[in-house]
C-alpha cells in the first residue's frame, strides 16, 4: 500500500502533500486520513474505531516540512523539557481504553527546526460520552487547560496565561471547535500557543501550534490561519 503508514492494528494514516491543491498564498495544504478497513455498521475490537472515514484537514506554511520521524522526536524532546502542549481533557476520568493511537498523527515545522516552532495534530481516546462543553464556555475550557499546564510536576515554575478563547461550530457535522490562544512562561523560556480541540466518536483531536514568544509577531497570522482551517470531515 504505497503512501500509507500503519498507525494502529487495522488503521492507516495517509498524508497528502500540499501539491494536491494549489498553494493558498503562503500556505500549503494537508489532509490526514484515518481509514478503518471494516464494513458498514461494524466496529474494530482492536482499536475501537468505527467504520467511518474520518478526515482531519488544515493548512500550514508552504515552506514548512514534515518529517514523520525526526520532527516527532524533536517535538517530543522539547516537550519532555517543557510539557506545554494542551494536556488531555478527560472530565477528571481516565480514558476507557488504552491509547493505542494517541500521539501526533502529523507534525510540521520550518526546515532545520528544533521543535520549538511547529504545528502538530494529536489524537487521543476519550470516553464515548466525553463532552468538552461539560467544562463550560470557551474561556472555562481555556482555564482548565492552563491550570493543568501550571500543575505539571515536571515544570513547577511554569505560569500560563489565557489570551483569548473562542468557539466555532460546524452545523453540518455537529462538531464544536474550541480555539485557545495562550502564553506559557518559565525562568528559562517564553512560548506562545494557539490550540484547537474538538471531540468526535470517542476521539479528542487537538491541533497545537507553538512558537517562542520572540517569534510570535512573525508567525501569528499563519498560526491563526492554521487554527481556523482545522476541521474534521465525516464520510460514511
Automatic annotation (TrEMBL):
GO biological process per UniProt: photosynthesis
Annotated GO CC locations: extrinsic component of membrane; photosystem II oxygen evolving complex
UniProt cross-references to InterPro entries, sorted A to Z: Mog1/PsbP_a/b/a-sand, PsbP_C
PsbP C-terminal domain: residues covered: 116-231
The organism's place on the tree of life at top rank: Eukaryota
UniProt region (Disordered), positions on chain: 82-107
Start-end of Polar residues biased regions: 91-102
One of the record's GO molecular function terms: calcium ion binding
NCBIfam families: PSII_PsbP
Protein name, per record: PsbP C-terminal domain-containing protein
Naturally occurring in which organism (per UniProt): Brachypodium distachyon
Taxonomy of the source species: Eukaryota, Viridiplantae, Streptophyta, Embryophyta, Tracheophyta
Gene assigned in the entry: LOC100832328
Amino acid at each position: 500500500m504505497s503512501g500509507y503508514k500503519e498507525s494502529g492494528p487495522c488503521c492507516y494514516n495517509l498524508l497528502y502533500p500540499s501539491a494536491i491543491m494549489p498553494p493558498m498564498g503562503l500556505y500549503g495544504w494537508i489532509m490526514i486520513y484515518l481509514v478503518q478497513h471494516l464494513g458498514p455498521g461494524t466496529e474494530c475490537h482492536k482499536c475501537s474505531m468505527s467504520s467511518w472515514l474520518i478526515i482531519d484537514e488544515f493548512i500550514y506554511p508552504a515552506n514548512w516540512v514534515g518529517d514523520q520521524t525526526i520532527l516527532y522526536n524533536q517535538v517530543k524532546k522539547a516537550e519532555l523539557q517543557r510539557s506545554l502542549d494542551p494536556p488531555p481533557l478527560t472530565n477528571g476520568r481516565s480514558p476507557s481504553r488504552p491509547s493505542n493511537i494517541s500521539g501526533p498523527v502529523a507534525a510540521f515545522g520550518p526546515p532545520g527546526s528544533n521543535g520549538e516552532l511547529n504545528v502538530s495534530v494529536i489524537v487521543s481516546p476519550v470516553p464515548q460520552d466525553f463532552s468538552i462543553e461539560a467544562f463550560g464556555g470557551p474561556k472555562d475550557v481555556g482555564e482548565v487547560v492552563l491550570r493543568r499546564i501550571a500543575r505539571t510536576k515536571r515544570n513547577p515554575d511554569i505560569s500560563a496565561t489565557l489570551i483569548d478563547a473562542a468557539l466555532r461550530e460546524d452545523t453540518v457535522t455537529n462538531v464544536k471547535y474550541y480555539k485557545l490562544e495562550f502564553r506559557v512562561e518559565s525562568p528559562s523560556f517564553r512560548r506562545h500557543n494557539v490550540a484547537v480541540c474538538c471531540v468526535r466518536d470517542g476521539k479528542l483531536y487537538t491541533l497545537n501550534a507553538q512558537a517562542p514568544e520572540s517569534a510570535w509577531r512573525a508567525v501569528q497570522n499563519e498560526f491563526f490561519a492554521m487554527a481556523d482551517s482545522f476541521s474534521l470531515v465525516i464520510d460514511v
